[in-house]
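Fill in residues.
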């Protein structure tokens, strides 16, 4: 089983990392941590976002694949879910402008892969 986890930044990744890792461990799943770079964002920034999941997963014994890509957010998530043959997408809900466009229901409506949205207040 594979779970795609698109992230919009270090803070957002940190908000849902524990839940994502717990879910992956319970399901025996491999994670695909993905960051979609914004126009002015350096690849190193995307790597750091994915590392939030990689570091937490390593401690829990969960396998992680890392992807840092450029592209239109919704299309890139859908394409990545298909390309990686992900069984599920777990996304964090946040008030951020980039994440807000993800949750415009486009991913949920257009993607064949089930989408689980974790509230930004999870764990508080």
């Amino acid at each position: 089983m594979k779970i795609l986890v698109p992230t919009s930044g270090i803070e957002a990744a940190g908000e849902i990392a524990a839940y994502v890792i717990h879910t992956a461990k319970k399901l025996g799943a491999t994670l695909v941590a993905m960051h979609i770079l914004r126009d002015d964002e350096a690849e190193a920034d995307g790597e750091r976002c994915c590392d939030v999941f990689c570091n937490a997963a390593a401690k829990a014994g969960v396998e992680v694949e890392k992807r840092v890509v450029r592209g239109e957010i919704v299309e890139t998530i859908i394409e990545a879910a298909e390309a990686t043959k992900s069984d599920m997408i777990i996304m964090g809900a946040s008030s951020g402008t980039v994440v807000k466009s993800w949750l415009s229901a486009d991913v949920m409506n257009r993607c064949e892969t089930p989408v689980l949205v974790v509230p930004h207040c999870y764990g508080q």
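Helices lie at 10-27, 43-60, 73-83, 97-102, 106-110.
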